[in-house]
Amino acid sequence: MTEREPIKESAFQEIIYEKKDWVATVTINRPQVYNAFSRQTLEEMAEAFRDASWDDSVAVVVLTGAGDRAFCSGADVKEYAREYTRRPREYWKYIAQMAECLDRLRHIGKPTIARINGIVAGGGNELNLACDLAIMAQHASIRQVGTRVGSVAAAGATQWLPIMVGDRRAREILWLCEEIEAQKCLDWGLVNQVVPSVRGPDGNDLSLSSADEVKAALKDSANRVDLTALDEAVQVMCQKLIDKFPECLRYTQQQTNFWKDLAWALTIGHTQDWLALHFASLEPYEGMTAFVEKRPPNYRGLREKAAQGGSSEFLWGPYQKTCQQCGAKGLPAEFRFCGQCGAALEES
User: Fold this and answer.
1) What is the pLDDT of residue 1?
2) From residue 314, how far is each of 19, 50, 81, 285, 289 by CA, in Å?
């Protein structure tokens, strides 16, 4: 049987793919948007994961983000607002691509390490959860964002967080969408290690015990983020994994994936269909638009609309009016004039 030709490491636009000394590194290379992933990013990562899986010169796969500000901030919300709130059927295809990417990462047949070098948000945490192990820089943080922006983190987070951190903590993470500092991530089991990442002017790591101290230290221009300790810790973990039997590691990965795979298999199809339908409603429109416009979403406005007997599912109400002038049908209930001919509409 002819072996598959390895992929060229320069074949990608939105990721960097490198292979060296038994380690393949996949870097999301969109620092201008905090390494948020687009549909193209997902396609490129899936292809890199397939190549790493099939390449016998790769023993460990490391996933990370470019720079020192973000591991991955999740999906590109501007792409969501531009594409998927306008054509929700396309979101069904998008979730299919994300599912393929996460499947290839989980079933890669080799240990995977999330090198968390900065912000982890939304779908970025689903990438983290899909990895076998995670090492986190002290200045980094994790948060889910679904209920803040009109979506549901059901492409990994709702399935895997209860397994990883327990039911109550999973609900807190998913419902409140609050930032989780590095030490709490370690305490809760979201990561395996936290390493120092803030250095002072003397070149030594600062002794910091809380997220507030980290943020205060980074406001001082004399201090800086330094990822040397992170890289060293990832390298140590890689070497430990390389010095294990590959077939035994592969099957151990398969077995320890059991509960994650079970939860995923029972729900991802439902996720794909429900989210595609949901993106035709008001909540994602308001959430994504507010993000793009850099304003708070009008959460209570939607609640008040429903409480007063209105429609919180449609931007201008359900499609129920008919224009008596031109006969146009399905006009939104709150329209006062026909969008086709401009005639005044009767109150329904």
Assistant:
1) 38
2) 49, 41, 16, 10, 15
